[in-house]
Amino acid sequence: MSITQQYLIDTYRARQHGDPTPPAPGTHDWQVMRELADHRRFRAALTCRPARGRGRIRAALARLLGH
Predict the structure, then answer these.
(1) Residues 51, 45: contact at Cβ < 8 Å?
(2) Is pTM beyond 0.70 here?
């Protein structure tokens, strides 16, 4: 069963029971990624490691592409 099919079933069941419909798949993906990055920086601070900045991936791509 795909994510879309499961979402449609969940939406149907919510309407049958009068519950609010669930969010569509992918609605909160970027928010989850930001929270994961924040959590990693928080864990690094707890272990007294330097928290790497947001430019780490951009710098790695620049090195890879030779810019």
Answers:
(1) yes
(2) no
Tokens of 46: 């707890």
Cα(33)–Cα(29) distance, rounded to whole angstroms?
Answer: 6
Residue 53 corresponds to which tokens in the numbers above? 């900045």
Integer Cα distance of 14 and 41 in angstroms: 37
Cα(first)–Cα(last) distance of the chain, in Å?
A: 44
Mean pLDDT of 51-56: 66
What does the longest C-alpha to C-alpha distance in the chain come to? 57
CA distance 10 to 56: 39
